[in-house]
Specification:
Number of helices: 6
Structural class: alpha+beta
Shape: globular
Mean pLDDT: 74
Low-confidence stretches: 1-36, 162-167
């Protein structure tokens, strides 16, 4: 009995030692810093909507537009009103050219979700998007809500690189500066948390002028080379 008890004590001691050794020698998992989710924008604009077929393609045209409203997701909680044309001018700035956004289209009677591409300003100031899955009719009181994009310096750099190929170096440099200036407020708003309440921001006159120059340089399209018909009413 004494011999059995001694063997049990020795075995238990060895087990404890083994556990201690394995614990001491086991590599510790490297701690990774918490990565906050990217803060993005939600954009909404209202007007009179039309679902159109042009040259075999399906388009959404929004006329008599309201001011566009953008607001950020948590934690930044910022909002900004801007001309509806800003959505066209800053399309690439939001990263929408390379990754087209989803949008909810509502006219008070029905709603639908579509993917929007290649916006352009028409001859009478309406906004026209390529929207292959769009169903009509729409009519007055149409609201377009576009899912968010993250505005950052990497996107601005990509814009400049794209425009070098599309517009040539001098024009690309100028429009790259305009994009950078026009997106400064939007970019800063996503990196400065403001707490529980929405902070209202405004575009400066310089940023508004930069948006106008972008549209002028791209012929009414936020995306150089986009083929959305802009010369039709």
């Amino acid at each position: 009995m004494a011999r059995l008890l001694a063997l049990t004590i020795v075995a238990s001691s060895c087990a404890l030692i083994a556990v201690g050794c394995s614990t001491a020698s086991a590599p510790q998992a490297a701690s990774t810093p918490d990565e906050s989710p990217a803060t993005s924008w939600l954009l909404t604009v209202s007007g009179t909507g039309r679902a159109e077929s042009i040259n075999g393609q399906r388009y959404l045209t929004l006329s008599k537009t309201s001011e566009a409203l953008g607001f950020t997701s948590r934690p930044a909680r910022s909002q900004i009103e801007m001309p509806a044309s800003s959505i066209v001018a800053l399309w690439q700035g939001f990263g929408f050219q390379s990754d087209p956004p989803n949008a909810a289209i509502s006219n008070g009677e029905s709603s639908q979700a579509v993917v929007l591409r290649n916006p352009a300003l028409t001859a009478n100031g309406s906004i026209r998007w390529l929207a292959p899955a769009l169903q009509g009719p729409l009519g007055a009181n149409t609201t377009v809500t576009i899912d968010g994009g993250v505005v950052n310096s990497q996107v601005t750099d990509t814009i400049t690189e794209t425009n070098v190929k599309a517009l040539g170096t001098p024009a690309a440099s100028a429009i790259g500066n305009d994009y950078d200036q026009a997106t400064t407020t939007l970019r800063n708003a996503t990196t400065e948390p403001t707490g529980a309440e929405l902070q209202k921001l405004t575009l400066t006159s310089e940023e508004t002028s930069a948006i106008a120059r972008i549209l002028q340089t791209t012929g009414g399209q936020g995306v150089p080379g986009a083929n959305t018909p802009a010369d039709l009413p």
